[in-house]
Amino acid sequence: MKEYFKLQFLMTIRKLSDGSRPIVGYLLALLISLVFVGVSFWLLSDKYDNAPYIYVFASLFFISKLSEIRRNDFLKICFANRQYRKVRMLENLLITLPFVLFLVYKQHFYLTFILVAITVLMALLNFKATYNIIIPTPFYKKPFEFTVGFRNSFFMFFIAYVLAIIAVKVDNFNLGIFALVLIFLTIFGYYLKPENEYFIWVYNCTPTKFLIEKIKTALLFSFCLSLPVLLLLSILYFEHIGVMLIFTFLGFLYLATWILAKYSAYPEEIGIMQGIIFAFGLFPPMLIVIIPIFANQSINKLKEILK
Amino acid sequence: MISIQNLSKSFGAKQVLKNITIQFNKGQVYGIVGENGAGKTTLFRCIAGLENYEGQIISELSPLKNHLGLLFTEPFFFTKITGREYIRLLCNARKERVSNIDDKNIFDLPLNQYASTYSTGMKKKLALLAILLQNNQCFVLDEPFNGVDIHSNIIIIDLIHKLKDLGKTIIISSHIFSTLSDTCDEIYLLKEGEIIQKVFREDFEALELEMREFTVGNKIERLELK
Questions:
Q1: A133 CB within 8 Å of a chain B CB
Q2: So where are chain A's domains?
Q3: Which of A11, A268, B7, B155 gives B20 a disulfide partner, CB atoms 3.0 to 4.6 angstroms apart?
């Protein structure tokens, strides 16, 4: 078990160092820890009433990543039953610990108790029973990003639509815009991981055509998913339609850039370098430079497969 | 027709394919046999254009990859995509419109279930069905019989015969010799990245005996089973 956790630590450092020297991984780990401390102090300051709940949800989000079925099946093969439970419980608690410390420090004892209880429960529960339910998707005709993505995150759209309705009820346009941003952020997640090379190789087209098709599909489907929020806000906040259109346009633009970033890193996942370049694009005029860079790199990477 | 001339491939210092020259003609079925690690999959990946290599792979179909149905030993599936959607994805990619998928579901696969939940054999059958529906001219099938039930094995053998009659080029690797002798016109023996033998149909039986003698030898006796 000690060996397992040692290996997990090494894997994390290797992932952070992204092929460069391990020291980069250690420095990044330190940086992430500092950011975490900063964000925790900011979120748990008494300014925001609902922030502790978001904090707990964030912690549970990280834990849920460890509950992946294949990963757990592998652990079950490696460890005896009792040891497996111990490992799962320990790794869940290790992830929760920093969150728990801050919650205790800010005297949110009730939430701390709930968080720890769910953490332990998630190590014990088997989620496999729900695995085979086929979630219907409106995107079944054009697999795979939106077909798979929608099935994994349909609840996020539900949350976004509910937020948009709440925004109207409490007359808070900014909350409505947040719902729109949430939709785009969810869709960004669909393009996070590189697909198996076979699903690029199989395409009967040039790299440029391939990228255009991918972006076209992404823009069309993301428009469909954001349409309910757009309609609701444009009817009830017609005076702010300019702001809404700017956010929507930027959403489309960043989504296209993100797709290009994904293929510019292919076959690797989007790494630190792409992340830094993309971050420059948060100042929108920089996209004029960034998009051609990513597009060029993507075409070169795809040329190796779509010869 | 696919003509491979002086094909070599190295991974770092390790040379995996050495100066391979083969010609695959239309309407013929070719078998590639060899031990694990002999270079079969690398050869297939080179033909598909998934690896860079030295030498030449020439085909009248240009680019070859757009007319090639490639079946991997272990096909990859996304976690939340149904069998039907997988077929649609592969056919869309080749701009091939596919209708009446249910009628064409010759392996009786549960197409409305997630493909990732299929058994090994079902996954193989789904991947095979998808590349058949793409209407390819050439097929590279890496272990198409592996993990597949006996009924489907019979169907696959008949399918290969049908593809041959339609003038397609088929290249197969298999560790089950009987499936190769049932389907192939020629078999190439690959050893440590080199083609060491080319055998025609009339000599398949001799090749099987020779391989058995060479592979098994006295290995089982060495176990001293009691």
A1: no
A2: 2-130, 145-303
A3: B7
- Asked if the structure places residue B66 within a domain, the reply is yes
Provide the pLDDT for residue A130: 46
A244-278 confidence digits (pLDDT tens): 999 999 999 999 999 999 999 998 888 888 888 99
pLDDT at B223 over 70: yes
Q: Does A152 touch chain B (CB under 8 A)?
A: yes
Question: What is the distance in angstroms between the Cα of A223 and the nearest Cα belonging to chain B?
Answer: 21
Q: Which domain holds residue B131?
A: 2-170+181-192
Here the CATH number for the domain that contains residue B78 is 3.40.50.300
Q: Which of A143, A203, A307 is facing B88, going by the closest CB pair? A: A143
Extract the tokens encoding A296.
């060029």
Q: Which residues of A touch B52 (CB under 8 A)?
A: 304
The answer, yes or no, to whether residue A187 has pLDDT greater than 50, is yes
Lowest mean pLDDT, pick from A82-96, A207-221, A282-296:
A82-96
B17 CB near a chain A CB, below 8 Å?
no
d(CA A122, CA B93): 40
Give the minimum alpha-carbon distance from B76 to chain A in angstroms, rounded to a whole number.
7
Would you say residue B197 lies in a domain? no
Instruction: Work out how many domains chain B is built from and give that number.
Output: 1
Residue B165 lies in a domain: yes
Distance from C-alpha of B4 to C-alpha of B22, rounded to nearest angstrom: 5
| Residue B61 located in a structural domain | yes
Distance, in angstroms, between A279 CA and closest chain B CA?
Answer: 29
Predicted confidence (pLDDT) per residue in A25-61, tens digit: 888 889 888 888 888 887 777 766 667 777 888 888 8
Q: Is A165 on the interface with B (CB under 8 A)?
A: no
The string of DSSP codes covering A15-34 is: HHHTTS-HHHHHHHHHHHHH
DSSP annotation of B137: S
b/e per residue A238-267 (b: at least 16 CB within 10 A): eeeeeebeebbebbbebbbbbbbbbbbbbe
Among the partner-chain residues B50, B89, B95, the one whose CB lies closest to the CB of A204 is B95
Contact B114 A132 (CB under 8 A): yes
